[in-house]
Design goal:
Layout: E1 11-15, E2 23-25, H1 31-43, E3 47-51, H2 57-68, E4 72-76, E5 79-83, H3 87-92, E6 99-103, H4 108-118, E7 125-129, H5 140-149, E8 152-155, E9 164-167, E10 174-177, H6 183-196, E11 200-203, H7 211-218, E12 223-226, E13 229-232, E14 242-244, H8 249-261, E15 268-274, H9 281-288, E16 292-301, E17 304-313, E18 319-321, H10 333-342, E19 346-348, H11 361-371, E20 377-379, E21 382-385, E22 395-396, H12 402-414, E23 417-421, H13 434-440, E24 444-447
Parallel strand pairs: 2-15, 3-14, 6-7, 10-11, 18-19, 22-23
Antiparallel strand pairs: 1-23, 1-24, 3-5, 4-5, 7-9, 8-9, 11-13, 12-13, 15-17, 16-17, 19-21, 20-21
Helix pairs in contact: 1-2, 1-4, 1-7, 2-4, 4-6, 5-6, 8-10, 8-12, 11-12
Bound molecules: shikimate-3-phosphate.
Length: 449
Amino acid sequence: MPAEERPAGTVRVRGPFRPRGALVVRPPGDKSITHRAYLLALLSSGRSTLLGPLVSDDTSRTLSLVEGLGAGTRWVEGGVEIAGVGLGRLRTAPGRRLSTSFYLGNSGTTARLALGLLSPLRGREFYLDGDESLCRRPMERVVDPLREMGAEVSYLGEPGRLPLMVRGRELAGGSFTIAVASAQVRSALLIAGLVGGVGVAVSLPSPVRDHLERLMAFLGLPVEVEEGTVELSRVDEVPPLNLPIVGDLSAAAFWLALGCTRPELLPLRIVGVGLNPTRLGMVEALISAGAEVELLPEEEWGGEPVGEIRLQAPPQEPIRVGPGEVPRLVDELPLLALVGAVGRGMELCGAGELRVKESDRLAGTREVLACFGIGVELAEDGWQVEGGQRPRAGECMGLSDHRLVMLALAAALTAEGESRVGGVEWLSVSYPQLLRELVLLGAEVEPAG
Ligand code: S3P
């Protein structure tokens, strides 16, 4: 694995951000797609080449999992080559060791997808553990339907949480209606069906990111999507994947938020970014609130539209987000609260899921913004933010959630004067190069002693 940029500790930020020239940014590879591409590459019996994957703590957990199951990986110019094990061998080979442990750090996506991947591997035992945050996050949403398929999962600590043990078993196919609109759950069940050699259908209450489904269709696998239900029939062979990975919209969200709170930066161009409609919730919320945003699709990479987002003017009205939209912008909501505070306000409801992310992001958003003098009124499943608030320079320490660190940085770069933001090492979870990019673009950000 190449050397990662790993910022550590606390930074001093002098705001407001005044870039050296016109702002053109290229976000790193998409995190959700990187996880899924690594897993499909493992299941293929050929050699896959993935260009521009996200190299981060979270995605390296999935890569280690794939290596632990026997895939060969090699870093090449611009990406990674993965020599897959193949579905047939993975299904039947007992593996070098009958019992394997995987430490999954902070990565919820790795944990949930791994449950689907490992449950059908007969004759093997797996122990999954993670950091403090991951061990607090709910796993029943995946484990319960997997158990209906015949999976054997034992919680080793608190029920419904990591650490846990999976004993591989033969699974039966089935149709599942899941109450929570989670892409991770749907992907986990589809992967269980794929590896187990059985058909699976999954229905969710509202649209979620569909990256796995697009990759499967791109590879010619028998996946069908119809009105909220995704169905995968039995598969015996996964072809290798050769594709570049589109830029991450959730990383792009940082720049969109900065562009909205500092209109002096506009026009802002974000290039090489994924434009998958199931991820465009933030852009749509901004447009509905009167922002001027242009979407310029250019090509498709692995079934994913990619192109440019051009932000010309910030929202002119309050931002409103309701339950049906939440899954399409769930990771961007903290940043949208800042945009609303500086702009014309924000109203969010139906976002109880934010309480079970890497941290409680409803409470966390209020705490971070309070450090910069911004008020947020919390509800059980959302918030109300008054518009016309001006962030003051402040100190925001003790964070351990990458998305909240990004929020604190965006607030500090919007405020006038010197702020301090702690916990920037957590950026390595999803956007390790963010601080370096900010500095290159002219932001005054430096380590604080
Ligand atoms: C993800 C799905 C979302 C998102 C997470 C990544 C994925 O979680 O918050 O950062 O890659 O499937 P849920 O599926 O729990 O909504």
